[in-house]
Amino acid sequence: MVDEALSAGAVARRLGVAVTTLRTWHQRYGLGPSEHVPGHHRRYTPTDLARLEIMRRLTAEGVSPAEAARWARQAPDPTPNGAVAPTRIHPTGRDGGGTIPVGRAGPAARGLARAAMRLDAAAISETIAHALAASGVVATWEGLLRPVLAGIGERHAATAGLIDVEHLVSRCVSEALAAASRAKVPTGPARILLSCADEEQHTLPLEALAAALADAGVSYRMLGARVPVAALVEAVNRTGPAAVVLWSHTRATADPVQLSALLAAPRRPLLVLAAGPGWRADTLPAGVVRPVDLAEAVSLSAAVRDSLNQSRRD
Ligand code: B12
Q: pTM score, two decimals?
């Protein structure tokens, strides 16, 4: 039993609720961890988890917490012989009437998707912050944020709904990535310029890149969303970056003229990266590089920064 018992943080992530919510359910309604190993914090058993899943589902459907707790406590033990309780719940009712598909992503992504459907900002933020601290930016982006963002996009495309979910999750992701960037501000001149293409509002991938660069000790300057080409060229001429990463998420914002303008700038950067699914490989001007993913964008940026520093030393 001890092997299957979970910490409060692990249970919160599986259920997609905040740890503070678990604490309240424990203190007010007696739905706490029952496994006690001397010298350790109490742990949640599969039976505790199953009761909490009932609590989460009923409160999400609008049942009062006191009433939901009564049902949860009375529920027959669903895990005879210590079998692990199922953790996959298909939200209904107040959860928004559906799920966000996350493919083969792990339990944290499923927890994040559930929290997103409930518009539970505290749980969303806590899940992301925990993943960033435990696994770093690149792994959190690929294993947690990307699957959930892509799932939201998929559901939105199929139903035209979930705009509230998309906005709330975007905001929580931005805040968490900004906090991660602030926690590790690199020293040295900012040699990498990050910018969205003109009229491009999808900034999250660039924000992930910023946080990953901070993690890797690479200084950058971030211009953010919707940068007109004249302003971009002006920024290049004023700051002389070694690399420019220009993000386009959709065909509508992927005008290759923006890339040509960078290549023609008086202080032409050593490297121009056309990042994002908007760009079409066959329309890119010669000399522009297209990264395949976040990790490659980070390593190309770090490499060009290093080669510039090296040539300045020689
Ligand atoms: C969040 C979101 C928004 C938020 C953005 C908030 C923000 N601050 O970024 C808001 C609400 C603003 C928004 C607005 C719109 N959106 Co939107 N949005 C999304 C959503 C759900 C996630 C975007 C994201 O961050 N994706 C990140 C990952 C999941 O994308 P990816 O393509 O898999 O990325 C991989 C590659 O690009 C590759 N890669 C290659 N090089 C590099 C380099 C780096 C650094 C990185 C990180 C990755 C990378 O690796 C990535 C994975 O890491 C997507 C769904 C989706 N699938 O992307 C829709 C989506 C992109 N949006 C869409 C649309 C239509 C819009 C709007 C036009 C809606 C409207 N009618 O107003 C506007 C566009 C406004 C504009 N002009 O830009 C469509 C685009 C369809 C299309 N192909 O043209 C999508 C696909 C949703 C859908 N299925 O309909 N959106």
A: 0.80
Residue nearest ligand 1's atom 16 by CA: 202
In angstroms, the CA 245 to CA 47 distance is: 50
- Ligand 1 atom closest to Cα of 251? 84
Query: What are the pLDDT tens digits along the chain (314 aa)?
Result: 345 688 899 999 888 899 999 999 998 888 988 877 777 778 888 888 888 988 887 788 777 888 888 888 877 665 544 333 333 333 333 444 578 999 999 999 999 999 999 999 999 999 999 999 999 999 999 999 999 999 999 998 888 889 999 999 999 999 999 999 999 888 888 999 999 999 999 999 999 999 999 999 999 999 999 999 999 999 999 999 999 999 999 999 999 999 999 999 999 999 999 999 999 999 999 999 999 999 999 999 999 887 767 666 66
175 CB under 6 A from ligand 1?
no
Angstrom distance (rounded) from CA 200 to CA 287: 23
Buried b (16+ CB within 10 A) or exposed e, 85-116: bebebebeeebbeebbebeebeebbbbbbbbb
Pocket test for ligand 1, best of 124, 202, 227 (most atoms within 8 A of CB): 202
Q: Is the CB of 204 under 6 A from ligand 1?
A: yes
